[in-house]
Amino acid sequence: MKPRILSFVAAVIAAAACMSTQAQSFGDIPESQRERLMPQLEAMAGSNPVSSSSEGDAAAEQQSASRRTSGIYGPVLPEQQQLAIKPFGSELFSGGFRGLRSDGLNPDYRILPGDQITLRLWGAIEMDRVLPVDAQGNIFIPAIGPVQVEGVSHSQLDSIVKSAVRNVYPDNVSVYTNLQGVQPVSVFVTGYVNKPGRYVGVPSDSVLYLLDQASGIDEQLGSYRNIKLSRDGEVIANLDLYDFLTNGKLAHPQLQEGDTLLVERRGPAVSVVGDIAKPYLFELDDESLTGAGLNQLAPLLPGVSHALVRGKRGIMPIAEYLPLKDFGNTRLADGDEVIYLADQRSSNLVIQLEGAYLGRSYYVVPKGTTLHELLNEIEVNPGETAWESVSIRRESVKEQQQQALDDSLRRLETTYLGASSSTAEESAIRIREAELITQFVEKARQVEPNGRLVIANEGNLVDVRLQDGDVVTLPQRTDAILVSGEVYIPQSMVYVPGKSVADYIDAAGGFSQHADDEHILVARQNGEVRDAGEVGLRAGDQILVLPKVETKNLQIASTVTQILYQIAVATKVALDL
């Protein structure tokens, strides 16, 4: 017979008709976004950490504070982090432009004095010569005379020479020309480059080839937007590498002997971090020194909605937090720091299911939805789902469990590893205790809490508000009891009503030699962990036998035992010593 499928809420309401308790929200910022932004926001927009009374917490606070510099308007980016932000375009000269030199024989190449031209005539007259372009820009063809070719493009050369030959030999003469080689030119590269000097190229070379030979632009001082090409003391081209970086455009006149390429000092620059693909220092000209100009350059991530601007106007610090549309009209200044943020909260939550249920695994629900409201949409088979043992895995709870465990371990190390000894015998004992503590702390730091939020209270389900990313666990109904920890044969056994914890431990081979028979825990399917002496067993429970702390120091034993309890609650694991 097909098992009857009924709405989960029917069972829940029957068990918790009168329960309605509000739960505290832990915030809506996703952990992935926090992890990405914290290294930047700690320094630029964070708040001072909460002080702790312990020496270990104070040391951690001091280490965190060392990464920031406080100011009137809060922490600002310290100089070391500012230097770590590279200028936009700094990767340009790591691509090897100097290894991609042009041969100068492209169709648009303009002929210059010193170039070599091959000329072949056959028919009424025979000739096969290599003719140099003289200082006046001519080639001299015997029996025909000088022909002006300076400034003629490579693609037009053949027609110019043919026209000159046919003025003398109108019939029965075929003409072939070829630009055999071009005259090298030397160009001075100076200004804010890493290795100023005189570099050789060909007239059709890109300025990128010459800048790369000079080991690129000085990242701290040089401009990527204000580069001048001068000839005979007159500027013939102003180059902006941002056009090349963003649009692939970099047009400039053909180079000539003695040209000068000057990289000017960097203009107004703005550092940009936050929800962008990569932090950069952007150089802005007068026309783009606005939020709109920066928006076009910065590689914003999807969903960016606000910009935090921090800087100085005169001697006064300023700080503004603006929606992106208003930021577009904001005038920026040299040295400003801009943090882009995706600060729009979704009106929906994504909830995942795990365990024994029917139907889909993910639900998108409106903010403010409670657990009971969600369970009303989920179908289960009451014979397979232990609906009374529902629990929630929550990221914020996991973070709190991890933080509490880290704090306890840090206090343990601070309190006992640094203690002094007055006698040699006491010193030997301290060394053994230090070894014990070090090994224990190393193991404990490898433990990962599960973030389990217990929502059952004496058989009733508390109706908590859901948070984005919650994983609702509907455990499989089972008839097993798991015995683990410090027993000789950890195993699962069938639940038999009336059998005690001691009966199951005896069936698992009894206590191991490291067991602490006074510290036995019972972990429920709903995540609740209780002392074995306080509760009766039921199907699905897990018996955890904790290890004995092998030390005569009662304080250390008490502290380590407390941490073992924390680990058992957070992971359902009895960590061995």
From TrEMBL:
Domain of life: Bacteria
Keyword flag Signal: yes
Region (Disordered): 44-67
Polar residues bias spans: 48-67
Pfam families: Poly_export (PF02563), SLBB (PF10531)
PROSITE patterns: PROKAR_LIPOPROTEIN
One term of GO molecular function: polysaccharide transmembrane transporter activity
Gene3D superfamilies assigned to the protein according to its UniProt record, in alphabetical order: Outer membrane lipoprotein wza domain like, wza like domain
The Soluble ligand binding domain, residue ranges: 483-529
Alphabetic keyword roster: Signal
Polysaccharide export protein N-terminal domain segment(s): 106-178
Protein name per its UniProtKB record: Polysaccharide export protein
